[in-house]
Amino acid sequence: MPTEGEGAEPLSQELMTRWEATLPHQEEIAATLLARYAEPHRHYHTGSHLLSVLQMIDEFAEGEDLFLVRLAAWFHDAVYAIPPGQVPNEEASARLAVRELSRAGLEQEDLTQVTRLIRLTATHTPGSRDPEGELLCDADLSILAAPREEYAAYATAVRDEYAAVPEEAFLAGRLEILSRLNEGEIFRTSKGRTLTEAAKANLAAECATLQNRLNKLVQGSTA
To answer: Which of 51, 77, 93, 161 is the most exposed, having the fewest neighbouring CB atoms within 10 Å of its CB?
Structure first.
């Protein structure tokens, strides 16, 4: 997977090819989205992440209608402000999708589905009988089952995105998020579930590291 500044041109070309196959003759929207994913404050939520999600959608798919799932993937991190603005990033991304895809001629029913899927990525907890929601959420979370070195790079990149957040606050916040993920059902598609063991091992290891670092900080502040 290309990292920031590495293989940017081939990455953009592949993403544009995928966009054209999904929504032809709307290159301006794609260019706007790619510019957003290339924002300098992003270290993980970049075009590389977008491509990975699109690839995992293809890998996990089992007969779902992928058109709207793919569009939701394109927009799911389109707005990524740290700290978030007046509305959460997922909500802002959903509203952006409405504006852009309305101009592209999508019908209201399709817009409603795309925005619903985008909003699901805030919690990654689709309801029952929601194969499209399960597919997008599993694809978005697939990094959790990455090999150890790739997972470590992901965790470092997330910390870099939150560089302005004090260490203790970041550790506590990430520990809460990862612990909640690890305690629940991470993947819901049949192919995604095969990644559960690897994901839980990564999450448990990072949670232990986070807790250890947090304990040392707290002990140091009270010494």
So the answer is: 161
The total domain count for the chain is: 1
Does the residue 2 lie in any domain? no
User: Is 1 among the domain residues?
Assistant: no
* Residue span of the structural domain in which 191 resides: 8-222
* Residue whose tokens read 């925005």: 115
Residue 14 tokens read as 């592949």
| Residue keyed to tokens 């260019």 | 31
Residue 202 CB neighbour total at 10 angstroms: 24
d(CA 44, CA 217): 26
126-129 — which CB contacts under 8 Å span 24+ positions? 126/188
Local structure of residue 145 (DSSP, 8 states): G
Rounded to whole angstroms, how far apart are CA atoms 75 and 217? 37
